[in-house]
Amino acid sequence: MEERIQSLLQEINAYTATDKAGVEAYRLRYTSKKGVVGDLFEELKQMPVEQKKTAGKVLNELKQAAEAKLTALQEQVETSSASANTLDLTLPPIPNTTGNLHPLTLTRYRVIEIFERLGFNVADGPEIEDDWHNFSALNFPENHPAREMQDTFFVEKKGVNGAPQDVLLRTHTSNVQIRLMKSQKPPIRAIMPGRVYRNEAISARAHCFFHQVEGLYVDKNVSFADLKQTIFHFAKEMYGKDVKLRLRPSFFPFTEPSAEIDVTCLICKGEGCVVCKRSGWVEIAGAGMVHPNVLRNCGIDPEEYTGFAFGMGIERVTQLRYRVNDLRLYSENDIRFLKQFNTSSIA
Questions:
Q1: CB 157 within 8 A of CB 164
Q2: Where are any strands of DSSP class E within the chain?
Q3: What is the spatial distance between Cα 306 and Cα 219, in angstroms, rounded to a whole number?
């Protein structure tokens, strides 16, 4: 037996393990109840009494050596595993990355900043609106062809008396103009930025939702010249002193007279490109003098007060500001596109 014990002791001293599976294999072979050391203790019980004392001493030394080896193997494997998962503090730190504002938000802030300097307040209103605030009060008669230009998403809803009431996603922020003129008396000077919706086919030039900023100025003796100079000042502040402006006659039910406002194409510098349809001009807004019927609908006497209103798409303004050629990029959340803009662009 002593020869077997010496042989097992050599095996134990030479045993190595690199993972928990190797440690477990060692335990099962040497230190478990059914291991080789346990078998030797069973044999010890059958030996003569005079041999038990000598063999028992050597066997206990083997057991202690096997258990000490098991402890050493466990500590070795745990230490190596912990080292593999430990963060190397000698590496340089990864700096925190700061996000940036969306290009539409940057442009919206810039528009607000420009008009606030002219004394305009910022007003907001509901995106889900009723037909009267979105169409009827703005001189859109029911079934008028002009409504087809602003086809939107309607939801039929029961009114207070059970009669059907059309509720819709607003097609412009002009509903906020109506709410302002109904709730306060002139002078009124405010802009209304916000999201609007129309039933449009999604393409590089159009989307079913987009953002607008509209403006309203109602007071005594407000003229078309005031409108022109206000828009001219905005264009200079937004695009630079070299930008040119032109007004084309147009039609809107809520303004009379009405005009489309164009600026020189900043992408081709007026030479003609795909964005400006080879004309050298890009439309940025529609504007005009507030129609007398709109003033009457809001309880304002058109014989005493006049006003102008304008509306522009923030996407279009941003397109010219940052040379963006596809309107869909604004809502696709492509990080490669969004990382090109930084907060310093607000200035």
A1: yes
A2: 121-122, 128-130, 154-158, 164-169, 188-197, 209-219, 245-252, 255-264, 281-290, 306-313
A3: 6
Question: Is 196 within 8 Å of 173 (Cβ atoms)?
Answer: yes
Q: For the segment 157-205, what is each residue's pLDDT rounded down to a tens digit?
A: 665 666 666 788 899 999 999 999 999 999 999 999 999 998 888 877 7
Residues 22-33: pLDDT tens digits?
888 888 888 888
CA distance 342 to 106: 9
Identify whether the C-beta of residue 138 lies closer than 8 Å to the C-beta of residue 178.
yes
- Residues facing residue 286 across a β-bridge: 260, 311
Q: Which residue type is seen at 251?
A: F
Q: Of 340, 306, 284, 274, give the one whose Cα is nearest residue 106.
A: 340
Rounded distance between C-alpha atoms, residue 339 and residue 344, angstroms: 13
Contact (Cβ atoms closer than 8 angstroms) between residue 196 and residue 211? yes
Structure tokens, 147: 């409504």
Contacts of 126 (CB under 8 A, 6+ apart): 170, 175
Both tokens assigned to 193: 């930025």
